[in-house]
Amino acid sequence: MPAEGRGRRLVEAGLCLFAASLPVSIAGANIGWVLAAVGLAVCAREGDAVDWRAWRGGLTPPLTLFLAAAAAAALFGPAPYHPLENLQKDAHKLGLYALLATAFTVASPRRPLAAFAAGAALAALYGAAQWAGGLWVPGAVPRAHAWLHPVTFGEQMAVAFCGLACLLADPAERTRLNWGAAALTGAALVMSNTRGALAAAAAGLFAVGLFVPRLRRAAAATGVLAVMALLAADLLAPQRSFILTLLGRGHAVAARSQGQFERIYLWKAAWAMGWDHPLFGAGLSG
Predict the structure, then answer these.
(1) 234-243: per-residue pLDDT in tens?
(2) Does 76 map to a domain?
(3) Are 46 and 10 in contact (CB under 8 A)?
(4) What is the DSSP string of 100-152?
(5) Residue 163: partners with Cβ closer than 8 Å, 6 or more residues away
(6) Which among 138, 149, 153 has a CA at the least distance from the CA of 253?
(7) Which of 45, 84, 153, 257 is packed most tightly, with the most Cβ within 10 A?
(8) Is 167 domain-assigned?
């Protein structure tokens, strides 16, 4: 392997491993970004061109602001120990974004995106099989989750689905493969029965329609359809339906085991905490 290309190849290999593992294995994804970081170090040593200022991207200000708010809440909250202990999670988000933004100035995004698509497709297929198998279990509420928690799985499928929606906004990208991938990830998202991820996907579709000029006229209709899909997804699983539980028509067992009403209590408690600590909050686990 030529010395000049060693770092670049390590970066690309790390990004591909990170992208392919993200829907499948957090450990694999961690190994991937570490490999990409090693590749960047090799690039610096060998004198390869790296845009070290790329980390100053569009996500840097909001992530930095969020980190600063979390730090303030940890330092000035009522119980700083646990919030400070969890602060590294928010710092990790900013650091990982900086690493990926820099790494993609060295390697083309084409192969990592293909690797992510392969990993997401594998996870979606496995999740769909889990959901179908759960239909045969009496009293069960089937939820696709592949190798992750259903909430994490649903969030990843929402990201993949919205990304494919952006891709399909370009007429040149409207291939059978991309349409099939969008249908697969969309179905897996619904099968996860994760309301937060479904709401995020609905907001994402509205944003795609709002910011793509040729789709702007359909933004309102897209938003209405997305909200209808969100409501339908909630009602398709009556044993976990938040709407039916609020209306007093939810399954009695679900109301106890799925914690539908407990969510309302948690929201009320969070609102009260905000009023008690309006300036800095209480911090994560504070």
Answers:
(1) 776 666 676 7
(2) no
(3) no
(4) HHHHTTTS-SHHHHHHHHHHHHHHHHHHHHHHHHHTTSTT------TTS-HHH
(5) none
(6) 138
(7) 153
(8) yes
